[in-house]
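Schema walk-through. Below, the input block comes first and the output block second. Nothing else is stored per chain. Lengths vary across the set, and this one has 107 residues.
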Amino acid sequence: MDRFTLESLAAIIDDRANATASASYTTSLLEAGIERSTKKFGEEAVELVIAALSDDRTAIRAEAADVLYHLLVVLKASGVTIGDVLEELNRRTGQSGLEEKASRPSK
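--- output ---
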């Protein structure tokens, strides 16, 4: 069995984005706009927090999968690739988290 990766999931999302909304949940999210995609991502993130606070490992696993899927849909809707995110993470790993955070421009 091939190893499943975030890149694999991103490729599936890219492929399903070309289907009709009636045939693809991914397409229905993307066609509904960034507001819908981000709302679903937020809902799934809250469900993951609840599962983690409940110490329910089965629910944590399922909700984490939902969070990753919906995060990648938000990225797709925003024109950001998983490769872009991985490059950013790679850039950050060259320094401590505290150093990286301090180097960010203030808002």
